[in-house]
Fold these 3 entries.
Entry 1:
Amino acid sequence: MSFDPNIVNYLGLAIGLVFGAVGLLSGFCLLSSLRGWWGSGDGRLVRTYALAIAVAIVATQVLALYDYVDLGKSIYLQPSFSAPLMFFGGLLFGYGMVLANGCASRALVLLGRGNLRSFVVLVTLGIVAQMTLKGLIAPARLAVLQATQGAPQVISVPALFQTAGLDASAARIAAMAIVGGGLAVFAFAHEAFRKSWGQIAAGVTIGLLVAGAWFATGYIGADDFNPVPVTSLTFVAPIAESVQYVMLSTGLTVSFGIALVGGVILGSFLTAIVSGRFRLDGYTSPQHMVRSIGGAALMGAGGAMALGCSVGQGLTGVSTLALASFLAATGIVVGNAVGLRGPLQVRALASA
């Protein structure tokens, strides 16, 4: 089947538009979810996140089951990875989220709403991520990667089930039913969440966007002569690519990730204008700016080490049921916990 080679980028833009709109209207954000749950006991937003993961897992695994996407071609299911780097990168990213008062995807949504703090966060994150992936910090990252990476026999939850004697299809179905079903039960066990139709719709929509992006890159983009990288919603590397693209566009081409980033900002902006939520916000003090830049730098470096962010690993990576993604996501949550409740607790200076 032949498709216009640019259609994947158009789909990335469309997916970003929807994510930006839903993200603004629902307040979808891991940090806000955990802050509300641990701080005030309001568990609705964390259930939205759990439902989004559940839907993403089931929809993605169904696509893989029927050969619409080869998840083995993604960065999440590579035969070797560094467990320490995954966890430590996630830890840095999670703590950086608290310092910057939001993750990479949330910064894109807030920028569209007029939050100028997010512009500083995104530029800093993009530069430091490039430094970690390809620049000054890259040699140190690669040295740690080479010293600590391993090639375990089991790299995913379905593969773990296969060791119990299930065939590949049965193992995939069992894994998505247990993990996805467990997350869905956790979400709907909360009475207030069951009554929050807007949050339910947000969780389902974002979960389906993850699967939709897999379909776009893994099936529509699977050209025999010019295939696009098999990926889905992730923001650290795409933000870094976007920063580079706006400076060197004549020598670069638009990718799915760049289109996705632009779509999120535009979707949030249009929604903010229509709903009357657009307003310009800035820093309240130089100290606030320093803290924000520091958090963005940690997110850029940590996200590059962990190969993703709270969405890139916490949603997209986990949707592949890769063990490395669960490890990175755990690091992100632990980093959030350290910043919100631990000995290195960060006191919020302003709400996002």
Entry 2:
Amino acid sequence: MRLIYPSICIALLYSFQLRSQVGINTDMPNATFEVMKGEDLVPPGVIAPRISSEELSTLGYLYTEAQSGAIVYITTPFPGTDEKFKLVNAPGYYYYNFPRSIWIPFGGDTQPWNNVDLATTATSNTQNIYHRGNVVIGNSVIDKNAQLEIASSSKGILIPRLTNSERNTINDPANGLIIFNTTTNCLNYFSTDANKWLSLCGDFGPANLNLVNCDSPTGPKGSFKAGVNTTGNSGNAYTVVINVNEPGSYSIEVNTDNGYSFRKTGTATHTGEYTIVCEAQGTPMREGSDIPTITINGVSYTTNCSLPPITVEPASAKVTINDCSSLTPVGDYYSNELLSSSKNYIDIPVTVTGEGSVILKTNLENGFSFSSNSVTVNPSTNTIRLYASRAPINTGITSFTIEGYSCSFNVNVTSNLGSFKKPADRCSSILAKNPNAADGFYFIKGGTDSYKTYCDMTGGGWTLVKSYSEKAALNSGTKWTVNAGFNVNDPTNVITTETGEVDLTAFRLPLSVVQSIASENKYKFLIKQDINAAPSKDAWAVDNYSINTVFSGGNPTTGDYTSVGYTTEGKLFSYSLTKPSTQNRTHIYNGTSYNNAYGFWNQVFYAGYYGVWGGASRSTTETLTYTTPDGGTDVVYPYYINDLWTLYTPENQLNHHIGKCRVENNSSSAEGPDYGGLSSCSGNFSYRTPHSFNNGEGRIIQSYIK
């Protein structure tokens, strides 16, 4: 063992200062302090002070900026919560980092990416990390002056995109922090000098402001007159006083519900009070006092005071509407058809005071509106005409209100389908387009022509194809009986002009038109007492009709029909007459079944109800009592039900259904009364005559198709 001289040991007990290098096991140190391996069998190395974490913690107050970089070997993990020792989790060498006030393990941040919190290699994609060098993305060479460089010729950089509200929730933003504002579509950065977010788009963004009060100078300036345009008139304005809490752009609107408003946009570059003069635009529609509302930057602003009102003086001419209850629009109003100012208008009765130009107009409803446009009036003016414009959309009643007045009127919009210029394929199509379509005459398509006929809309959209009177059948020959089938082409008195009138005593559509109508294969017969009444309003028709729906057996408009494949519902002499099954010929009259009646029948010579043999099993004296149109009573014999809805010459007919027997003894010498008499008439025409009503035409026999 080597001896250490006492004098050296004593010298080491004293503090001294060296101003040169120190070498151990060498007399030529290459650095301020160098330790070389010795020649003795001593483990080479340098041992720093060894100390437990607990002991070092008690000496922590000694470590200041002067000790930054001090090295120790900590022998135990630190069990406490002191942030200085949060990285001391195992025995090892540690150095003190004064700027961060923490003991850091050797090799703690030598990796390319390190954990900010632990100063160790990053191991998770959720950790906050750092890198001490410059970074380039998309290239292998970085500009020497760039800390971060991103290179691309086809892509860009997406920085965090935040709404205005989301941006404002960032707590204590750093000076120069950048985001993309999706509310204003601009890059924003935070300035600690301005203590606010600033825009890189050359504007300040929306200002944060409020209305100071409603005192002067707040209020209107200039004169306002009904009917006088304020746009461009600098003398008309509305002043407001605002307090800007945060500089930026502003848009202030002072609104009324009287056709005019005020607006001003600009930029407030600093905080404080501003007096804003909003310019007028629009035309006041009526006189009176208007209470304005205010909108700031597109948001309705609620004031804590009452904004001064705006007084609108009467127009040079003051118009008073006299009577709204009698307003009636002129012209036809059809859905989806452009209106004509020469045909569609409404005249408004007025009283005028003064002289000048006014405009009366309505709101826009159902696609169209009314307006007088600018019209000059004076005290002699007693009506103002409002012209309709645009095209109605839907059918039905449309209500209009004249703006500035408590005056309303209604317009009935219908469909012009079924008109001469726009014929329909059948009446049911008209009803489908316009559910409020009334019974009456319409036009049906037939090749290039429009054929006028009657539509039973109340009954469901039935199209009249044949109509004749008893007189036409009984006194005018055999035309209406010999050619009675639906499949006969015998056009009679057809109307193909817009102004022509249909003669219901002798009328029949061409077969081609009849065939095109029969879309639902339904056939309706009825007998009317009053030639001018709608079927649903005729006392005799509601008690004497037959609706036949064909399901199988052919098409009666293209050939003979003698099948049982149909059903029937109807009435005869006020009693129910039905055929419920398509499998047999059984008819039920007033609850009694008649098994042998053929029922609905269609041939060239006949179309109607063929009842031969229907009552063969019934008594010839069985009767049903019914009320006659004149208020009396009469009887019907079910046994004789035959050849209803059309005449068939060779066979007997029920008395008083189509025609009446000439005399009680069925001779041809004289005519009997309109009501009462025999149960049936002999087959020959000479034994029957028309009833006397309808100017001697008698009842009207009609056939409809659906």
Entry 3:
Amino acid sequence: MFVKTRASDRAKEKEETRNHIIEVTKKAFLEKGYRGVSMRDISNMSGIGLSNIYNYFKNKEEIFSCIVHPVLEAFNDMLSKHNEEPQLSVDFFSSQDLQYEFIRMTLSIVTQFREELQIILNSSQGSIFENFRQQLINRNKTIGIQYIEEMKKRYPELNTNVSSLLIELNSMNYVTVFDLIVENYNRPQKEIETFVSQYIQYGTAGWKEIMQVH
């Protein structure tokens, strides 16, 4: 029993040390960006010996990946649901309840991962994620094109002759929403919620008009 307790304590201590390294590094990336932080900086800021940090992470890129992993998973989850019900129904254009679910998913990313968003959007230069912004735009564009094609199959009476440039612009604008929230992180949460809600309502009304949903 005593041996198991000591092993459990060591495991807990290792987990706490790992989390401490991640939190310290997150603050450093927020202040200096990925390029501006070295493993020695992380050692000095965390108070953990450099050689010991390498027992937890092989390099700062691995730490960066751990920091942004949750927000990447959140984006993947949200985008994977875009071309599913209820978005693939004309009811989405007129139902506030259905639109609210999309608003909720967007706000969830913003409220849970504001710092991670700032890091991956503005502080990732030099890392393997430095092209994340363009990759997100490209993925949104692909999803948008697939959405139009699927709506054409379901509702042939709709106008689905939509310019791919408009879809790309819409994709860029959606990423800009997150930029604006990151830049205005000191704004009250209620104001951020209103902004996201109004943006999605504005976009939905525009698509409803273009696609001639009646």
